[in-house]
Design goal:
2 helices, 61% helix, 80 residues, 0% strand
């Protein structure tokens, strides 16, 4: 699975790190009962997704994989 290189790009790492910080902020303020702090963390989660998407659009993400064309089916002789 690690040979596929899934997510090993600057865009993916940046988006995940920003979103993780948002989850931590949101969770901490939820426990503290601070509603504006909770929503600030939710905004950070969204900013992580936006930052990752913009970086991917700028060429710092993984190239999309193209599906290989299917090989034509060959007739198999039947044993009988």
């Amino acid at each position: 699975m690690s040979s596929s290189g899934h997510g090993h790009t600057p865009a993916a790492w940046t988006g995940v790190i920003i979103s993780f910080i948002g989850f931590c902020v949101s969770g901490a303020f939820m426990v503290l009962g601070n509603v504006p702090g909770f929503w600030a963390g939710i905004v950070l989660i969204g900013l992580g997704a936006v930052a990752g998407g913009l970086m991917r659009a700028a060429g710092m993400g993984q190239e999309p994989r193209r599906a290989k064309p299917a090989a034509p089916a060959q007739a198999q002789p039947q044993e009988g």
